[in-house]
Sequence to fold (704 residues):
Amino acid sequence: MNVRAQLVMVFNLDKCIGCHTCSISCKNIWTDRKGAEYMWWNNVETKPGVGYPQKWENQDKFKGGWVVEGRKLRLRAMGKGPTLLNMFFQPNMPKLDDYYEPFDFDYSNLYKAPPGSDQPVAEAYSQISGERIEKIASGPNWDDDLSGSQVYAVEDVNLEDRKIVEDYGRMFMHYLPRICNHCLNPACVASCPSRALYKRGEDGVVLVDQDVCKGWRFCTSACPYKKVYFNWQSGKAEKCIFCFPRTETGQCNACAHSCVGRIRHVGVLLYDADRVEAALLKPDDQLVAAHREVILNPRDPQVREAARKNGVSDQWLEAAEKSPVYALVKEFAVALPLHPEFRTMPMAYYIPSLSPVISSGADLHELADHGTFPLLEKMRAPIGFLASLLSGGNQEIIAEILRKQIALRLFKRAGNLGQPIEESILKNAGLDEAGANRLYRLFTIGGYTERNVIPTQQREELDSHQRKGASGFGILKKTRGPK
Amino acid sequence: MLNNFIFIVLPYAALALIIFVTPYRYFSNRLTWSAYSTQFLERKTLFWGANPWHYGIIPVLAAHLLGVIFPGPMKAFLGNEFNLLVFESIGLALGLFAVFGCLILTLRRVNTPLLKRVTFASDWVLLYLLLAQSLTGVYVATFMRWGSQWYLHTAVPYLWSLLTFNPQIEYVTDFPLVFKLHAAGAFVIVALLPFTKLVHMLYLPFDFLKDPPILYRWRTK
Ligand code: HEM
Fold:
């Protein structure tokens, strides 16, 4: 057993309202710079939709992540030999148009324009070339809220039945906020010939060493989630840093902190690093179970002993015990990895969104026995869609979670109305009363310190020379070009 | 006078710059160590520029170096007429390939508005210099036949005499002007290398070939 600790974020999709506050706070802190205008380390997508960059989920196109070959994993894009031959031109890298050409508006025209017969307008200009943009062709949330669904949503690879987009009565949507998953088997790290990307041993955060990065761009292509970006100004790769300057001091990430829906949970997971590769060799629909097996119980004395031996401090062990993430991912098993079949073992987990409670008058929906929720098969968001997104196609896992969410609602509804609750509803969903109450707190009224349990990192444990060198992002030094 | 400048002043200046400036840049600000790829902004023409250029220039450059490092074996190898013919033909083809690529790269910078913001004076200097360099190279290869052979008997001993600080420029002073331009170009490129994005060719990654796929860094261990 090789126990390591990992900081993990859980997103409760059931509560995400798609307000993009997370994206804005992230952008203001980290990517409000030249060369990074187009980057959204945190972004929120509408599903179904093509996302950002467009069609990132389509690995036939982008060749990200890993595939199983015999009893081994290999990068989908290319092995080490071809890596050397493809250094001059990156065959699978997304281009600017796959994201969008970043633009701003020239507000000075509002007061500088000469007198005339019409109102002056703030014209759009490209933040790259500086040239005026006649017609903005794309943006960071171009297909937000299903806009242009005939063009974009139909292209969602998770849709089984594309006709659904044309059928207003059956159409559905939910949001998908995404950051870097800080994977246990990160394809970006494996693909970097310069070895600039690394995973921090202590908390699992995946970073790009800007000094070592030479801009070969294999990471940008290899990440199946397209969460490593190329800075066109500095000529180097950049990515979400899990707000490590904040988490190191026990504060939660800017995106999670600013989330108005409080959909995010941050906490520690302990995992067995020796079991990761074997777990990823499982077939797609068993990957979620494999994920759960790799995650260890922080209350198990053997695990604690092994963790201590690996240098996990008592403070971190305590945080792991209290971890809301452990509760959601493993104990209640309601949070799922995004596209586990990309086989990077992503460490961001999603609680699938429960379709809305609908009136029993609707003829489209057959309701379950208890009369409040539609039958699982008749849910507005098809189980198959959620399964394609979150469980490698395993519909049973999604159904289990939806049943838990429904049982929880029925339980609380009965409590609110002072009605008796049938024991069997909770039990059939694999919950008990105490568990249901705990889950309810986590989903709803749990405060900041319940939703986020982030142990600090003891700076004094560090070698002082190393500490001096770890000045963060290195942006104080000059890169090329005008300021 | 011109000979002294091209064959003594230039090479020693270039040597000094590359030996002292390169490590300085490496240790003082590695943030600028990049090929400054522009593929993100424009990829269609880049494919037809970057690939032919690099696939052409790298083997040709390697052949130049091979001659300097192993003159003996190279002489023996090229003493065979068939080998010489094949070697020269491949070299010429690669040279033309590089010229084609470099031409595309230059035109691409001219014709792509999006690239304006990422194109600096040094990019133009490099592209024109490298274009001129590959053109003079192809000219020499075409009109001064069997260069791979006479190179070993003239330029190589001259380069060695430079390295041993006993410059014997008689080896090369009788060549026509194109050859001198080609030599001068080479020294200028080496001199500019540490100041420009050309440094990208100096830091080739090989560690990853033997490393395990996932790299960890521990701050506490
Ligand atoms: C030895 C291995 C080399 C590697 C891995 C390499 C890689 C690269 C890469 C990735 C680019 C950026 C292309 C892009 O815009 O995306 C580039 C550009 C360039 N390389 Fe290399 N290169 C190598 C050797 C060389 C050599 C030997 C030369 C010339 C003597 C050279 C000259 C250039 C030039 C001039 C550019 C800029 C092209 C432009 O302005 O568009 N490279 N190289």
Observations:
- The first strand of chain B starts at residue 216 and ends at 217.
- The mean pLDDT of chain B is 92.
- The beta strands of chain B are 216-217.
- The two ends of chain B are 61 Å apart (CA to CA).
